[in-house]
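Here we describe the complex-level prediction in full. Unlike the single-chain runs in Section 2.1, the two entities below were treated as one system.
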Amino acid sequence: MVHGRARAKVSARAAATARRLAYGALALATLAGVALAQPVAEPALSEAQARAFQQRVEAYRALRARAERREPAPEETSEPAEIAGREARLRQAIRAARPSPRAGEVFGDAAAAFRAAGRRNFAARTPAERTEWEKQLPRRAPPQPNGDYPATLPLATFPPTLLASLPPLPEDVEYRLVGRALLLRDVTANLVIDVLPDALPAPTPAAAARPDPEEQRSEAAP
Amino acid sequence: MTSAGACGPARAARSTSRRARPLALLLALALALLPLPACRGAARADEPLLDRIASELRLTEGAVRFAVIGDAGTGGRAQYEVAGRLAEAHRRFPFEFVLMLGDNLYGLERPSDYARKFEQPYAPLLEQGVTFHAALGNHDNVSQRLYEPFHMGGERYHHFRKGNARFFALDSNYVDPAQLAWLERELAAADEPWKICFFHHPLYSSGDRHGPSLELRRVLEPILVRHGVRVVFAGHEHFYERIAPQHGVHHFISGAAGKLRRGDIRKSGITVRGFDRDYSFMLVEIDGDALRFEAVARSGTIVDAGVIPVREEERQDRDAEMASGGGAPAGAPGAAAR
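The structure predicted for the assembly as a whole is:
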């Protein structure tokens, strides 16, 4: 009797252990699945590529700094006219100093690596995250280098995991996405520095069927 | 105070006999559709903290009082009507400042737009000395950071202190590693019992058009939780929604101060209260250990109200300080310094 009870205890313990192992394996598999689904923030560019890219960005900023000596950047004020006026004059001064920039000249030979990073990041997303991303991207043709970043164009959230994989930029320059293009934008002058077309994969048919966020905006703006 | 989980349709259905069940279900459905502000739906919270009260703002001396508006800057009639209601609310509940949750200026941002979409609608409040603190939305040019009445200090993300609370405005359009590092550092350094974040894109949402910002949630939420952020205000969705606390953080969406996406809420398991039938804004009061809130529709109806207690850890710290003879801390009721 005692032996029988002991045997029953042992087999119950074994069953509990097996259950725990099964749950553990399930949890591990779930975690692994989640980890696989996370966009990976590994550097998009090799060290040499990143260094060369950042040097080109710095060359642009040096040009901008020279322009700023003639037309100072806007500062904090309660006068919106002053902000807009200074921004526009600075933009003009930069354009005068850099009259015909070539598309892709700042992205340079790292262009392929930027495109690969975009595709990789997109591919690593869950379907929900793909949808989330696609539905907020404005679909119009991107502005050209030296163009204004249009005031009516919404700023799609730049995916933080993609941002983490790209070379860091100084505070006054940022990455932007318009349609499938990756832009470099001068924040202070609201000027497009460079454009990289086809940096993102083509939208899924579902995303292409959705209304453009830009249209939603113009319909609602009075 | 009534526990949110103990009232409403579910309770009505439970208390009836089997024969009366169809009738009870019909009654429950009818109750669910009624616009009752304080007793609708069970809170599927991960903590039973949030009790609902009928009218909530107590005007305690020294409390931190503010309003919250999101997606306001259309310059359209609805924005002006909500602004009028906000000014009216200020007369009964004199708030000191307003949080702007982004999309502060839709469309063009010419000087005349700043006037039509901000200065004119809120003129009565600005004249009373009410200050506005803005976060950037996806329709906002970054140059808004330079506009002094938005109190951004020339930065895309910033923080400020009011009484026993510290407010962190994030730029959710562009959460780069630099911003994440800043947030981690500044939250760690903040010793106020109330840490409140506000930004444009909601981490949780039941909106059909946008829905939650999943990737932002993945990068931001661990930081918010790690550093004891208690409340998050977001906009982007053009309605009001209160989400059940997630990992101890209370999430509000208040993005209908100028735009409305009627019927957009697909009420989910995390929705405690949703309101998408009219424009709205929020009124908030931090009074020591309690944060009281109201969501107010353009019509003036209170569509939600409640109170959130300070985090248990903060309360224990305060009690320990009191026990060691540290005197009245900043978090004590009535002791909040401006």
